[in-house]
Amino acid sequence: MVSEQYRAMLGGKSVIRILSEFATKRGEEIGYDNVFDYSLGNPSVPVPEEFTECMIEMLKNSDPCSLHGYSPSLGIPSVRAAIAASLNERFGMNYGPEHIFMASGAAGALAHAYRAVTKPGDEILTFAPYFPEYNPYVNLTGAVLKVVPPDTESFQINFDAFEEMLGEKVMAVLINTPNNPSGIVYSEETILRLADILRKKEQEYGHDIFIISDEPYREIVFAGVKAPYVSRYYANTISCYSYSKSLSLPGERIGYVAVNPACPDAEVIVNMCGQISRGIGHNCPPSIIQLAVAKVLDKTADLSVYETNMNLLYDCLTGLGFTCVKPGGTFYIFPKALEEDAKIFCEKALKYDLILVPGDTFGCPGYFRMAYCIETEKVERSLAALRKFVAAEYGNIG
Amino acid sequence: MVSEQYRAMLGGKSVIRILSEFATKRGEEIGYDNVFDYSLGNPSVPVPEEFTECMIEMLKNSDPCSLHGYSPSLGIPSVRAAIAASLNERFGMNYGPEHIFMASGAAGALAHAYRAVTKPGDEILTFAPYFPEYNPYVNLTGAVLKVVPPDTESFQINFDAFEEMLGEKVMAVLINTPNNPSGIVYSEETILRLADILRKKEQEYGHDIFIISDEPYREIVFAGVKAPYVSRYYANTISCYSYSKSLSLPGERIGYVAVNPACPDAEVIVNMCGQISRGIGHNCPPSIIQLAVAKVLDKTADLSVYETNMNLLYDCLTGLGFTCVKPGGTFYIFPKALEEDAKIFCEKALKYDLILVPGDTFGCPGYFRMAYCIETEKVERSLAALRKFVAAEYGNIG
């Protein structure tokens, strides 16, 4: 018999996916250039040339049996060492290779982190607005994801609601800064306060509470914004990283788990990741990609286009009268819709070939997300559509 | 708190891994050339040149954003279509792309298959001798792996024991032909009889019983041996394939699930695989590897070396008086040890720098495995060590 649990999931298509398919279809009708598709968080700038050169060099000159051979289950030792050294240099940490576990993207890293620190029935808290895939990611492990309502003033943490929900069954707190979908970077003050509350509750409850820090947007931070390295502020931190966004290679599935050396169980957790892999069929990211990424750890794709796009949109949106917290990073912006129901608002926007995603999907009704990882030229052209849409549907709101 | 379930697994190191580490250490002492390391099933012949050329060509000439972009969750459509066409051509099947799910190696494919057709508490039967990783693979899903004792005469299926164990809770039967560790290929007669029994029991119990067919060695079949394509004999078959062995790229993590189109739930199962991925952090094999493999689907590495090695070992072993079923494929041979406890036998062999793996690990005590995916020149030199070992420890047994 096929599994009823997974069969039941087949109906539920993601709103983002439906909108993206709509955009593709509409593009076939009127030309994709004329569809302002802000639905998908897919990098739009090329991988650094050094990555490509390094791949070609290895393919030409390495022994193929060792190049394409099995990676040890925790990752290739030289790659783990290079990542540890790079993080130490950049963030003042003291990782060794024994604190790094290679994973196939952030999804793979998170799949290990959840299992390492929870058992079925335990709770993980996350904060709205949040990446909706966290629901299947966590709930299919048997743990339970609970969502703390947003602080819509700043999209930092709603601490009152958080403290109310931080019961004894909470074993981990899942954060994502810079944040998808708000684009907000958690301030040092936010992280200090979060760490402080967690340490107190660890004492009160007599068990660990981990921070699982999902950091795929860590390198996409805009001018003047400081993005604190979460692990510096809290010993029991498990950082989950992906190179998808910083190097523009989301399809190649490469990232890692880094456990703070100050965490008493750090090495145990990394070794446990190797065991968790056996149950979920993971078995390491591709060897050649591990080796190539290790050569460009401190490079990024040219991420400046995202900041250019953000400024164009932010100025236009606020000029039109939208309420909008200015993003500190990522390639998302999360303004308040011009009517209560953001689903209706986004539905109306479709008439102007603007593909916007209602905030309901992210646990934050009344707002909408724009993923501006598209060409700047297209962002510029979309502003006229945005102005037309607002004027026609909502009149002068300024 | 770290997960006690995974923490408890940390002690149990695999015997194969321990022996392989011993071989490496010994190699550092006396030169790796002098250690006859038959412990690991790691391909020893290079990937076909066409694969390397195709990778370089794409890296040089493709748009990097699309080359390294996200794969759809079931795999890249053109790749799925190419695999279906290749299987249809070679095995007379009628797969469409909708029956193929791209997975990161056989481990990834199996992780999806188990979850698609069992729920916690269900049973999966497999047949000794068997790949020991099946234990964590299955048991960490919540289903229960039960092992049917071997037919040591032929290493085909022990049908009496099988029928006794085929109770109502069995939802799937996991087979591996050509087999690791025996090297045996299931005959058409074996597969017909297996299929027949399963169909009867499906009727009797009123529920599906799936064959999960783990086929990483499908292309490594020796002269004169016919390896039937399992799915042709049984509608409810889920084939799990990996290119690790046929193309010699185990580190690149590429394979697929192919569900027999005659299975009434075939398309549902493939779509469910996409949902299962969300819970286990899978998210597709690397895009560039999917695209490159699609170009060399009908090629293999030069696998003939394995047959050469097998014949050398088989002749020597039988000449020395070993009881040994002749392998029909793979790069393994599984002779009977010269004393009851194969662990003691293999321990003694270490004195002669022969690294052999006791069959206990494979659910078949009294036998031992040799993985002869090493250079032929080394196999040749190992024969003298083998003769010396047998003469010194067991005298003339011929």
Keywords:
homodimer; 398 residues; alpha/beta; Aspartate Aminotransferase, domain 1; Aspartate Aminotransferase, domain 2; 2 domains; EC 2.6.1.- (chains A, B)
Taken as a percent bin, the fraction of beta residues of chain A is: 5-15%
Q: How are the strands of the largest sheet of chain A arranged?
A: 2-8-7-6-5-3-4
- The structural domain count of chain A equals 2
CATH architecture of the largest domain in chain A: 3-Layer(aba) Sandwich
By CATH, the superfamily of the largest domain in chain A comes out as Type I PLP-dependent aspartate aminotransferase-like (Major domain)
Q: How many strands, what sense, and barrel or not for the largest sheet of chain A?
A: 7 strands, mixed
Using the CA coordinates, give the radius of gyration of chain A.
Answer: 21 Å
Oligomer state of the chains in this structure:
homodimer
Element order of chain A: H for helix, E for strand: HHEHHHEHEHEHEHEEEHHHEHEEEH
Quote the distance from N terminus to C terminus of chain A: 59 Å
Looking at the structure, the CATH topology of the largest domain in chain A is: Aspartate Aminotransferase, domain 2
What is the count of β-strands of chain A? 12
Low-pLDDT stretches of chain A: none
Text of the CATH class of the largest domain in chain A: Alpha Beta
Structural class from helices and strands of chain A?
alpha/beta
- Largest contact between chains: A-B, 76 and 76 residues
3D shape of chain A: globular
